[in-house]
Amino acid sequence: xYLTVSIEPLPPVVVGDAVTLKCNFKTDGKMREIVWYRVTxxxxxxxxxxxxxxxxxxxxxxMENYRKREDLVYQSxxxxxxxxxxxxxxxxxxVGIYDRATREKVVLASGNVFLNVMAPPTSISVLAAxxxxxxxxxxxxxxxxxxxVSGGKPAPLVYFKRDGEPIExxxxxxxxxxxxxxxxxxxxxxxxDDTKMPKSLAAxxxxxxxxxxxxxxxxxxxxxxxxxxxxxxxxxVVSREFPRWxxxxxxxxxxxxxxxxxxxxxxxxxxxxxxxxxPQIDNEALFSCEVKHPALxxxxxxxxxxxxxxxxxxxxxxxxxxxxxxVRILVQGFQNEVFPEPLFTWTRVGSRLLDGxxxxxxxxxxxxxxxxxxxxxxxxxxxxxxxxxxxTHTRLIVFENxxxxxxxxxxxxxxxxHCGFRxxxxxxxxxxxxxx
Length: 436
Fold this sequence. Notes:
Elements: E1 3-7, E2 13-14, E3 19-27, E4 30-40, E5 45-53, E6 72-80, E7 89-98, E8 106-115, E9 117-118, E10 123-128, E11 142-152, E12 157-162, E13 165-166, E14 169-171, H1 199-204, E15 253-261, E16 267-276, H2 279-282, E17 286-292, E18 300-305, E19 313-317, E20 321-322, E21 327-333, E22 343-348, E23 360-361, E24 364-367, E25 378-385, E26 388-395, E27 398-399, H3 418-435
Parallel strand pairs: 2-9, 14-15, 20-27
Antiparallel strand pairs: 1-3, 3-6, 4-5, 4-7, 7-8, 10-11, 11-16, 12-13, 12-17, 15-16, 17-18, 19-21, 21-24, 22-23, 22-25, 25-26
């Protein structure tokens, strides 16, 4: 007797699809059994998912008589109604027949197929690295957007756009194994006015040579060392809204793409885009992260608009503060949508805060048991992100607390010892009258 087994190959399938595994075999012997296995752990474990035992089967009418000499073609199918990521992997079909010469001998053959299950990404988000971060009007600083894509299998293709146009970025090498997280701020080496390098010099510099970045030293194409003369500008002349430095109109973008496997079989992809931030042209710029994946009919995307904070809205509770109350001053929002997350710094104009510190970080400033001395004090909240900075002031008015007496008065409203004082005064007057 002879036996040949083959399984029809399968294209990649998407999670949730129905899949049919088909095992074709040809033989001139009598059927003994058909067993389907799911193979795991690199082939060390085989899990039965379907068994057909002809010896105990009553529904055997489709099988031809084993005494016939012509070839018989059979097909065994296993249907998976809704595939999951855990169904990904190899499958085997094992077929056994009785030998024509002797019924005691069983001939075995098998075939295998790999089921490739794809999963579209389930979430995509764009965030800013190193937030909250301050605004610098003296020194150029780089800025990094991070796009996180989760739930996909295989790893998706991630790319950035600015104002709807694809960004041509210089790829950065993968970080070495065992190294810490990549710090994008190492890309820049600037002093106060190093950013006035002509574009032609940058094009002919290290970046223009096409050499890969050395692993030990960070790239220096964004800010080459050069001599510069910096004039002294009084603080009252420097604007808070616009930095004093100038650099190339067209920024150079750097791109890095990494992915890490997740326990559920999916991949988390992270893409970073780094460039030298220019608040004049980057404020209100729209950046989008887009994802292409074979399980998606159209790209996924998430977008953010870089915006500096403007017009913080501050509330104070209670609205009518009394001596001894706990006052909370909170930033509830802005007149615009702000990205990335601002950094909030509280100061007291002309003095230190109630706890003796010079400043306090956070959206809320808490003043415990305010004394009367704080009446009329002015508080400044500075909200800033890498695109700009803004200040808002609020004045604290402290009223007298009716629940706290001004002095140690008795229940009749008179000070203790008044009766004794009146007795001494009357006695003194009597003595004076008698003497006169």
